[in-house]
Every structure is written in C-alpha cells, then in structure tokens.
Amino acid sequence: MRINPQYINQMCHMAEKLQMTQQVKLKTEKNRVPGARASGNTIYLRSGLLQNETLPPAAITFVIAHELIHIHYRETGWNRAKQNLLSFCGNKKASALILLSELRANIEGRKLANLTPDEVENSLTLMYAEGNNGNDDNE
Ligand SMILES: [Zn+2]
C-alpha cells in the first residue's frame, strides 16, 4: 500500500524539528483497525488508518507525530517490550511509566504536528469509535 507523499514530507519535517539524527522510516502493515506502532526507527501505519475515509488527515498526522515522539525518546523495541511484560505481570511502576510515555507522546506529538487540541480530540474520538485507541506500541 502506497503512503501519500504528504505524510512522508510531514514526518521528515517533524523529525527535523526534533533534531533527530537517525533516519526514520514510514511503512504500512495490513490491519483493518486504525492505528500505528513504532519499532526501532520505523513507524508502521495500519492499512485501516490509511484507508479509513471518516478520519481527517489530521488524525494520520497526529499518529505519525505520536510515534515519532516514542522513537525520539527511545520508547520502542526491547525497552517498550520489557515495560509491557513487567506491566502485564503487575509491576505498577512499569504501568505508570507506560502511561506517562503515552501522555507525553500525545502532548508533545500534538505540539510537534502543530495541531489544535480539538483536532486531536476529534481524531482520537473517531479512532476510538473504530474500536482502537489509535496507537499500539507493543514493539
Ligand atoms: Zn503510544
């Protein structure tokens, strides 16, 4: 599935704003539920996000920004998997750290993407309506 070059350009611009030195890749994966994940330096956008015609373009921009923030703070890969496993086993500190990293990704991602709080709220509401929180950073 082809990604609209507009989103690739936006991602490059946001990575520059963060002064990221690593090259971040944008890929797609087949999954009908709207959302995305970051693994290493790659953001995987689900087909259900890109093909959903009820979601505004701001929703996709926000998801990319959210995932970029995770990459920026190295909250992907083994670091995140370890926290998820500890949280699953009842470790409250790991659960709190995951919650804080998600909040930071939402807050800094909104600012990075230059979106209004209403644009983000509308995007998240529509993604929740599809049965998903829009982000699934389990790698
Ligand atoms: Zn996240």
Automatic annotation (TrEMBL):
Gene3D superfamilies: Metalloproteases ('zincins'), catalytic domain. The lineage of its organism: Bacteria, Bacillati, Bacillota, Bacilli, Bacillales. This is Peptidase M48 domain-containing protein.
